[in-house]
Amino acid sequence: MKKVVAELRTERVPDVDLALANIGVTGMTVAEESVAGRGMWTYPAENVRHVILTIVVNDGGVAKVVESIQRSATTGSWGDGKISVSRIECAYDISSGLPETGELETPLLEA
């Protein structure tokens, strides 16, 4: 399993959400944050609002998710955001307490 975290402009969220739904992503976590890039520390925080999307996907679906986010989130301007991918060794179901290792039982994406 992989965790894809995308930091993107708030106004691009609807397009990214639609693009991810079109490739079969069934869910994601969404959080808002303020960001300040290097050399921009005095820039008003309200002008640099971003959204963080977190998506857990089987290894085979990572490239499809990253490509979909890049294509739908880009404006070609400064501050479009970043995408990072990390490995998930194990996830635990809160209600049962059982670990979920390896591939997801119901894959979000087909490879």
Reading off the top of the CATH hierarchy, the class is best stated as: Alpha Beta
Number of strands: 6
**Overall number of structural domains:** 1
Strand content: 25-35%
Q: Report the structural category.
A: alpha+beta
Tell me what the structure shows.
The protein has two helices and six strands; from the N terminus they run E-H-E-E-H-E-E-E. It is α+β, with helices and mostly antiparallel strands. It has one domain (2-100): Alpha-Beta Plaits. The strands form two sheets. The chain has a four-stranded antiparallel sheet with strand order 2-3-1-4, covered by helices on one side. It has a two-stranded antiparallel ribbon with strand order 5-6. The protein is globular and about 45 Å long. The mean pLDDT is 83.
What's this, in brief?
With 111 residues, the protein is α+β, with helices and mostly antiparallel strands. It is built from 2 helices and 6 strands; from the N terminus they run E-H-E-E-H-E-E-E. Strands 2-3-1-4 form a 4-stranded antiparallel sheet, with helices on one face.
